[in-house]
Amino acid sequence: MSSTGTLTIRVCGCSSDGTVQSCNAEAYVLPIGLSMGALIAILACIILLLVIVVLFVTLRRHKNEPLIIKDDEDVRENIIRYDDEGGGEEDTEAFDIATLQNPDGINGFLPRKDIKPDLQFMPRQGLAPVPNGVDVDEFINVRLHEADNDPTAPPYDSIQIYGYEGKGSAAGSLSSLESSTSDSDQNFDYLSEWGPRFKRLGELYSVGESDKET
What we know:
Layout: E1 2-14, E2 20-33, H1 36-61, H2 97-100, E3 113-115, H3 136-148, E4 157-159, H4 199-213
Antiparallel strand pairs: 1-2, 3-4
């Protein structure tokens, strides 16, 4: 922001009484421009204007998203709609079967883990034939006893998986439900004291008791 101009100055030599002794024409270049402070102020204004433009463009590109999310843009998988009343027992499309399946039984069967006994036994000898003159019944009972008490014989203990419905309630005595007296020993006169609604019921029981007594 500066410019230059050419100024022609004629320098003449004069005596003490003002007489021109010599006069030659020479050209001098004089700078004509702004001061350093003015240049700094102009540059600061230009930089500030550029910063404002950049901020404005950035804000226009990053506009705030609306608070209402469209269904097409909502990709979360944990939103469940509870306003679906379903179509009764015949509705087979209003649920996700993968959620209802047991992860251990997706392949159609439950895993079975056989646990073999970790016991060391001496090798058993083969079954000897029944000797002559031995009671067959006693021989069979001995072999049956050996087979029942052999821990290495299959089937082995295995972990079974069943549907778990909860711990249940504690078992109680049902003796209070048992009646130790017969109908003939019971007195139904208290039914007549329950008001007119039970009056007819009391009359029926009283008639039945009177018939049994006669």
